[in-house]
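Bug #2210: token dump truncated for 3D-(3,5/4)-trihydroxycyclohexane-1,2-dione acylhydrolase (Decyclizing)?
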Amino acid sequence: MNQRVLHHDAASANDASLARATPGGTIRLTAAQALVRYLAAQRVTTEDGQGTEPLFGGVFAIFGHGNVAGLGEALYQHREELPTVRAHNEQAMAHSAIAYAKAHMRRRMMAVTTSIGPGATNLVTAAALAHVNRLPVLLLPGDIFVSRAPDPVLQQVEDFHDGGVSANDALKPVSRYFDRIVHPAQLLNALPRALRVLTDAALCGPVTLALPQDVQAQAWDFPVSFFAPRVVTFYAPAPRADEIEAACTRLREARRPLIVAGGGVLYGRAADALQRFAAAHGIPVAETQAGKGSLAWNDPLNAGALGVTGSPAASALAHDADCVLAVGTRLQDFTTGSNTLFTQADVVAINANAFDGLKHRGQVVEADARLALEALAEPLQGWHAERAWTARAHKLAAGWRETVHTLTHAPQRDAVLPYEGDVIGAVQRSCANSPTHDIVVCAAGTLPAELHKLWRAGQPGAYHVEYGYSCMGYEIAGGLGVKLARPARDVIVMVGDGSYLMMNSEIATSVMLGAKLIVVVLDNRGYGCINRLQQACGGAPFNNLLADCMQGPLGAPQIDFAAHARALGAQAEHAANLAELEAALQRARAAERTYVISIDTDPARTTDEGGWWWEVAVPEVSTRASVRAARAKYDAQLAARAEPDSLADPAGPTDNA
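Reproduced locally. Full output below:
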């Protein structure tokens, strides 16, 4: 790809003149110019620790009347130090920015700017995604005039009871920090606060600075020192001695401990510390969606994915564990099996955010994952899990690895459509180097369940699946952000036809930027995942697969995804079977631009192995016998939740939605 797009590090003439200004002096800038200068001045230590690079990789922008004159002009002036990337959809470009930060383990990030109306409200879904996943993104939507002189302006949302409300107020519930800049001087406080939230492990999430268009253009005398280049410090709490002591006390009592590795392991760069800790004490490790890749897939103590989309090895160990060390996870329902999977175990929760650590009534160690694991190591020297427990974990993990190999290498039967597991196997076999070179990107539907079980993540960052918000449409836009962050890696976007149809415009952006993606579209002709869940809850197939939807006289469309992708500028083809898919993947890897491959898949078939109960409420009253039967199973499971010993073989819907 064009390396200049997000990696240029030149100094502009404006910065040169700024550097010559007298100490303690001021410089007259518009609010927009000051904001852009400040962002461009923030630095971060490189991954090898040998230098620095910009904290902000660039700004995704779609201009409109609320940001083109003010912020647009400022971005043009600083386009070398802070590159501006033009996208095709506001929600999509925010997804790309979020994925960029996740691929950098939250150590680098991007900003996003939109106009005041639909552009701003298009950010709400992406902001919610970043909020749920604890990922940094700076949102800079334009806003209405502070002066109110021309009200109501084009695209203004008027509140009949509060004249100060604008469309941007919709972003308040999904922002970790929100501010509306009504005077340029406010930036002196708002920008450092925003930066603290974006770089704080406990606070991390989306920040919104709403920018009224008249204020963007307003000038003020800013202190020169405000724009001095600064190397950013990332904040994460160090463990407290009393909390470490309490955690050690509980762990020493454990005979059958299990580590649950969450996203905090990756963001805290704690993968090596986790591996050493698990090996030293003989503790098996199970991974959440966000934490997959914390431990190499072939590590003898890696029991695989945990929870509703988990492996049988991890589920068996979680069910029998007497203590769970939850590291960097918020323990959402897919991880805990709706709080049925390890109810018999005490939970010790290491988390930078105490709010997350308190989940599942855990004993909290409020700390960075790496620092906490290292602090636990010395006082726990000589302590080891029960030897039979460690041996059982080794056996279960090895058995699951063999099962994964079998599932992903099954030959395709004639006249039988492949399913997601078959496609995952074909993708991983196609990598000529090593599976660790690929980064797989996905978000919603059946694929995250199958990838969680079957994808072999050999290193941190090889598995990039957004499942905290399970947001359809993230996949291709997220893949673009990952590729911008990791241009030397092959980025494989795996996406269902439903998500592809929701948001695919950033294929065109990837072609424009030279940020090559390999996109594999699994076409099961509808929302196959929810169709299965619907039937597992006793419902009739309805409004999910195209065949079961209301249709006009021409029937459901026959969608040619390859032709559509070619229309967006990509190379593309349709594979009729797995053999053709593998050949197409080789062509895709050799191609110079984004390559899209579609393949028809079975909407009904999934991996039978693994999984756990997930609570989905079934109607208490129905005229349908199948719904009443599903409700009876649901009631039985609710009763069983109060009796943990009865949950070894959970009943009820385990379909992965």
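Output looks complete on our side. The longest strand covers residues 137-143. Marking as cannot-reproduce; reopen if the truncation happens again.
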